Amino acid sequence: MRKLKAFVSIVLVVCIIYAAAPVASAVYDSYLGSMLEFMTEMYYKGLTDEEGLITALKGMFSGLDEYSGFYDREEMAAWYTNLDNSYVGIGAVLENHKDGIRIVEVFADSPAEKAGLKPNDIITAVDGKNVAGMDSTTVAAMIRGEEGTTVKLAIMRGDSRLDFSIVRGTVIRRTVYYRIEDKTGYIKISSFSDGTSDEFSDVMDVMDKNGIKKIILDLRGNSGGYVDEAVAVANELIPKGVITRLDYKSELFNDHTYYADGKHPEYLIAVLVDEGTASASEILAGAIEDSGTGFLVGQKTFGKGIFQSMFPVLTPEAYYKYKLLYGDSYVSQIEWLGYYGVMASEDEILGTVKITTGYYLTPKGRNIHEKGLTPSVTADNPTHPNGIVLSEITPLSGTGAIRPDAYNDEVYDAERILVASGYLKAVPDRLFDKDTVDAVKKYQADMKIPVTGTIDARTKEKLNSTLYELRNKNDEQYAKAVEFLGLFR
Q1: CATH node for 87-172
Q2: In the chain, fewer beta carbons within 10 Å around the N or the C end?
Q3: Is the pLDDT of residue 97 over 70?
Q4: Which residues belong to CATH 2.30.42.10 in the chain?
Q5: pTM metric for this prediction
Q6: Can you point out the beta strands (E) in 227-383?
Q7: Which CATH number applies to 386-485?
């Protein structure tokens, strides 16, 4: 009942106590209060009591590990938005970087893509404010705003400094991409966000209708997300049995085992993984491997075998109010709700603690934290010619010509093939404009086919051949997955 207070005391012992002799917890409480008063009194800019408390909480929890932290209400709203399917912003996934904030992913047809932002760009300033040392969640909140307004980003791309003015818009974030080639399904999951499992279920319906039994599941660069979403995806892929077990440190929680119901068709799965495959992605990859449903291809995964829990915490005023009413000293909303059925109001919540609460284990009981999953088929990471991710391109269909002024996804795929092969310099944008026409004509001339500027059936065939050649040359992991799946009937 007093585990949280004991935990805080332990942290304080580790951080600030030099003597080995035991000291009553009341002394630590008094010490912490005095330290907060000292900080607010001495800091040259001045701090309110709440600002001082929030600053202290941020330091307390972020000092535990790189995944724990304290977030105020605005930061939490931004954090949840990062895992929503739609929001108003620019359409880019961000992560912390020593030089600023790195762009991990740019969503298709988003304001960020249209403006020309690319993965691995480093954001150094937002609307003129330097973001070095800031958390990616904070910067994401700075970038978001009202639809139709403009945000200015300073970007480092290699050694070049670039400035972008981007009009914010509604971003529809799809986290599951798929295609079918030669009776094999290719599915890429970029993250496990709210609704990912629903998207995946729809994709599997398509696979089943087409009689697909072999699947290449691409989890490269997928840093995780919601555990429940990853578990729901695993349930559609593996036989009846254990998916994962969450092993909590605290006795306040019961360990939890997730099971697959075994109600779905059987598949043979090659899972593409790399150093960026982490957390919830490793739960899914480990479940597929341990269940015997598939094998891993690529590089050893990140090795994040721990999970975090979210705890909204009360304001000091609300804490004192409920302590007087019930005689207990809980700081988290979850404890008050669990023990007394008390739901604090929104203005009684100071913020949210995200804290590492345990390990997760694979179906065979493996703890992969700081070890990762080692693929049974190793292959070098792919290269991206001219910044194009080849595995995401769908081969062009053989029906119907694509003509100038067309605007669709097939134009986008053709443009990406032309960029990857060096014929198009412009950013792919789905519009068959003059730049694309000129690139098509040059490509047709080099391929010794009629130069029309239209992407007809013969040009599509050539572009698809170019795509396959580029994949074999630049994406050994994908090529190995195709090769090994081909060994099975």
Answers
A1: 2.30.42.10
A2: C
A3: yes
A4: 87-172
A5: 0.78
A6: 241-248, 256-260, 268-273, 294-298, 306-314, 349-361, 377-378
A7: 1.10.101.10
